[in-house]
Design goal:
The chain has helices at 4-7, 90-93, 164-180, and strands at residues 2-3, 11-14, 20-30, 36-42, 50-54, 58-61, 65-68, 74-76, 87-89, 97-100, 105-115, 120-126, 130-133, 138-140, 144-147, 154-155. It has 183 residues and is mainly beta. It is globular and about 50 Å long.
């Protein structure tokens, strides 16, 4: 699964032209299903314009870039961020309070977990240690995220050595352990 905070700031590249179009600023998703509608991007440069690309124009979200099919798939529209019923920008929910229906404070939203094909917001990361799947037991309100019960929070699964740096560190530490073994 990918994290929203790691995706934010990734470069946006068109497959057809091979051009760097900008960087990911935000993503818009459906409040009920978690389906990603698209991404808001900021063009390159100091006085960059902002725009967006619909999910249909996205070729894929990789570790290092967001690939779009063509440069024409990006709609450069300035700062247009019109709210629509049932849709939300991910950045709007970061640091939102997470409460139970009885008003017990469980923490705050720290990140979003993304996955699936097509891309979907699968879960909310609460205080970096727990997650809650976006399903019927979660209500995303304007001012808070409300859970039916605290029991829907789950411990975050352990992540393995996914990245290249983790693999290098693991290889280095195992080589060093071999060297230090008494002969």
């Amino acid at each position: 699964m990918k994290r929203y905070k790691k995706a934010k700031g990734l470069g946006v590249v068109s497959v057809a032209e091979g051009a760097l179009l900008g960087k990911i600023e935000d993503l818009q998703f459906d409040l009920e299903t978690g389906a990603v509608y698209g991404f808001r991007i900021k063009g390159p440069g100091v006085f960059a314009k902002t725009g967006g690309v619909a999910a249909a124009g996205v070729h894929g979200l990789g570790r290092d870039v967001l690939l779009v099919h063509r440069e024409a798939d990006v709609e450069w529209a300035g700062e247009r961020r019109n709210p629509e019923d049932g849709r939300a920008w991910a950045s709007r929910y970061l640091k939102s309070r997470v409460l139970t229906r009885r008003g017990v404070n469980l923490g705050s939203v720290e990140d979003f977990l993304l996955g699936g094909e097509p891309l979907v917001v699968k879960a909310l990361l609460v205080d970096g240690q727990r997650m809650v799947a976006l399903d019927q037991s979660v209500a995303l309100g304007r001012d808070a995220v409300v859970l039916d019960d605290a029991s829907v929070l789950q411990a975050l699964p352990e992540e393995g050595a996914e990245g290249w740096w983790d693999r290098v560190k693991d290889a280095f530490s195992s080589d060093k352990a071999e060297e230090e073994k008494p002969k």
